Give the backbone structure.
Amino acid sequence: MTDATTPTLDPPGSAEIPADLREAFDAYERAIVANDLDALDAFFAPGSDTLRGDPAGLLVGHEAISGFRSLRGGVPPRDITEVHYRPLSAASGGAGADVALLMSVSRFRGGGRGLQTQVWQRIDGRWLITAAHVAPRTPPLDRSIWRSVGDPFLQGAWEGALEGLTVAVKDLFAIAGFRIGAGNPTFLEEARPEKVTAPAVADLLRAGASLRGIARTDEFAYSIAGDNVHYGTPPNGAVVGALPGGSSSGPASAVAAGHADIGLATDTAGSIRVPASYQGLWGLRTTHDLVPRQGMLPLAQSFDTIGWLTRDGDTLQRVADWCLSYDGSSTTENVYGASGDDLPWRFLVPEEILACVEPPTREAFSKLLAALAASDDPPPFRAVHTGDLDAAFTAFRTVQGAEAWRNNGDWLGAHPGAVGPAVAERFDIASRVTAADEAAAREDLPPIAAHLAELVDGAVLIFPTVPGPAPQRTADVEAVRAATLRMTAPAAIAGLPSISVPLLTVDGAPVGLCLVSRAGTDIALVRLARRLAALVDGAPR
């Protein structure tokens, strides 16, 4: 077996690699194996034109490539078994050309093969990589997305309204015979297999959908970033190197990557809407208590809600029509009705929420409203006030924290160090919420909810789902997190249905457009969102 730092000689028929290029290639390979970040950075050409691609997508510019590499970690042990060289500079031709293509085959000591394609250029006397594409060995599954997966993992009915669709189930729902893991390996190890499948899962199976697998979640669903210190961060299917959004990161990434058609998820403070916005998906947070929560591990029962993520509005409509009607889950119809009437074609722009939005996203939103106003079916828009978002978020966070600690405090106390630092800090804050704090916060919630309910009684709120595109995984996200929660918390406080639709684009990345309507109009809200999306597609730009 060839040592990884000493690649094989060129295969028969390959042009002879210039000695200094071969030396640079060997040194680069040694840096890869050693995960020497400084050396790797130095081998990639500086500037904004350098490219690196892999199955997850394309990184453009030295800075983006460097940021990705700092989070990736080293590659598994491997040996280079072939190196093919082709000169690319027609002017200088042959050996000594200043631009060259190298393709190398790697054999991993743990099994499997990979392929690396690199364009090297002599710049100021040094060979540097200006473009690279990596085809790694085929993984059995992406463990950052999936806890368990199959084809199918669990077969649904052979016919029905959702026949042929596949579902990624967030790791908070009971599936008979399997454990709930809640994004934490210690919790998973101690959990008992569930005896009954959660109604939210059973509804989808009964309609003909099949489970593709159990998808990851942020620990105990207490985050909106999408990272997990135990299993890794699921990839963002729309923006390479960006956060996927949480806590429904696993289902969202599975849907964005085409691994599943539907993500069954939860939303307490934005855990469906945020990943939907970050990854260019449709995401519906349903009216509070509209979908039965039996068999779902709670975070904060006053706000926990079930919903779905899809790649298109048609699929989301099929799911909502089934799960929220007599034909699907009868419990929902008895309470709220079928949402058969259309919602009013009137929209309200909440000024306080819009103030949380980053300037480029606000500009994209304003352009969208202008395009809609100039369309053949222009809806009226009116600015409104939602009230003090800081006060609303403080009350929300206090009640959420008190409930989260009641649900999980005993387990956390018995398992010190079992959760990641960010989640541990969140639970530590939650543990210090006093009974008086909680009681005062609960008194503040009803007026906030009543005001939101009054606003949407005859119109629909419209605003960007989040402040801006998904942050890079290397970014400091605390300020973004604070602004995001101020935008997502009001609908959670009022228990209102809220949908994120991928209708905005900022710097090439998706940002959701959020619509909020009155309680029980979930099916009609999806219809309205699809009507709006169709109008946007046909609107002048």
Q: What stands out?
A: Residues 223 and 247 are 5 Å apart (CA to CA).
